[in-house]
Design goal:
This protein has about 400 residues and is mainly α. It is built from 15 helices and six strands. The longest helix has 27 residues.
Length: about 400
């Protein structure tokens, strides 16, 4: 039987020497330190690891020497992108404002034509091409915020280097440039009537300028205030503010250029005429010949009759005296006492009876050779037959009547 005695020095509890551990239900960890139940097991360095109240292990920050994850940079990118966008918008705004209100004075007047169905892009391109604005893109952007006017087809007069506000004001008012067509064969009275159809003009006002004597043609005889035959034919563009005087000067200048191109002074002398007489012959040729192939022979008939001291006997001169353009000439008309009645008076009319075309003027200055003294229309297209004798003329008249042209 074994009995226990007093503790001796060999007792491990007394001496502190290692011995067999008492069985407590826990395995002893190396180093002799048991984990504290409150803190849980320790890390390899011997320090206890924290636990949550549930007993789960709480993550600790990275220890020195370990890799730290990169911070997120997208907020900085967003800020940078927004900044760039704002800068671009600001620069764009300032550019559009500069284009909308350009510095300096307006430039020369130009005409831009807007066709039917023209869109905003094409319109702005036209304005840029004519120098009204310097940037079609800026104008389109500006219009997105200020609105676009309703634009009617037609021609518009602008000053170069105009502001966008001015451009819109002109467009909103409608076309302000108009064309005036003066065909060969017209008279001053007919021109005045057409001028009166233009906004800001009147027939009486234009007629007064014509007869006033302050605007004259270099081919106009002294003492004459008649400009028939002395104005250039064709199309004229009438811009805002253009006066009757300016328009009349343009017509005179156009005819003057034609006369110089044909060397009117020298060419008229070759056919035994003064320049004014040659213009008068050409005006009668214009009315009597009508179509191109008749002009030369008609001019020759006139010159032959003048050379033979015969009255011209031209219906067109009688109609001019009555203020008519075409129509039948009756016996009563032929008896009208007027210096323009070439049935009663020999020689040329006192003035031209219309504005001749270039072809008619050329025919008067350089007619074909021939001995014709008569002519009459014998074809529906206006073709005329020419005759040397009255008997031949009567035969041609009979032919014309047979064809329903007499």
């Amino acid at each position: 039987m074994t009995t226990s005695g007093p503790s001796g020095p060999d007792d491990p509890e007394q001496t502190g020497q290692p011995g067999h551990a008492e069985q407590t239900g826990h395995a002893e960890r190396p180093g002799g330190i048991d984990p504290d139940p409150a803190t849980g097991p320790s890390d390899d360095d011997g320090l206890p690891r924290a636990r949550s109240r549930s007993g789960a292990r709480r993550e600790q920050g990275p220890r020195p020497g370990t890799h730290r994850p990169a911070r997120r940079v997208w907020p900085r990118v967003v800020v940078a992108v927004v900044g760039v966008v704002v800068l671009v918008l600001l620069v764009g705004f300032l550019w559009v404002q500069h284009e909308a209100s350009p510095g300096g004075s307006p430039g020369a007047q130009v005409v831009a034509t807007v066709g039917s169905g023209t869109g905003a892009s094409q319109l702005s391109s036209t304005l840029q091409a004519t120098g009204v604005i310097s940037s079609s893109l800026a104008y389109r952007i500006w219009s997105q915020f200020h609105g676009s006017p309703s634009v009617l087809p037609g021609s518009y007069a602008f000053d170069k280097n105009s502001s966008f506000t001015t451009v819109d004001r002109v467009l909103s008012a409608g076309p302000n440039v108009f064309t005036l067509d003066i065909p060969p064969g017209f008279t001053v009275a007919e021109v005045a009537a057409r001028v009166g159809q233009l906004p800001g003009h009147s027939s009486s006002g234009f007629a007064a300028v014509v007869s006033g004597g302050t605007v004259r043609s270099p081919w106009q005889p002294a003492g004459s205030d008649n400009l028939d035959g002395l104005l250039g034919t064709g199309r004229y563009v009438v811009v805002p503010g253009e006066t009757d005087t300016t328009l009349l000067n343009s017509m005179i200048d156009r005819f003057d250029r034609l006369a110089h191109r044909l060397d009117l002074q020298a060419a008229s002398a070759k056919v035994g005429l003064t320049p004014y007489q040659a213009i008068t012959v050409a005006s009668i040729v214009e009315k009597e010949g009508v179509i191109a192939k008749n002009l030369g022979p008609v001019a020759r008939v006139i010159l032959n009759r003048l050379a033979n001291d015969m009255p011209l006997q031209m219906d067109s001169t009688v109609l001019y005296s009555e203020g008519r353009d075409g129509g039948p000439v009756t016996r009563a008309d032929l008896a009208v006492h007027s210096p323009y009645n070439t049935y009663l008076n020999k020689g040329l009319t006192p003035t031209p009876i219309c504005f001749p075309s270039e072809a008619a003027l050329q025919a008067a200055l350089d007619p074909p050779s021939g001995t014709w003294l008569y002519f009459v229309v014998v074809q529906p297209d206006g073709t005329e037959a020419f005759a040397d004798t009255f008997a031949q003329q009567q035969a041609n008249e009979a032919l014309a009547k047979q064809r329903g042209l007499g």
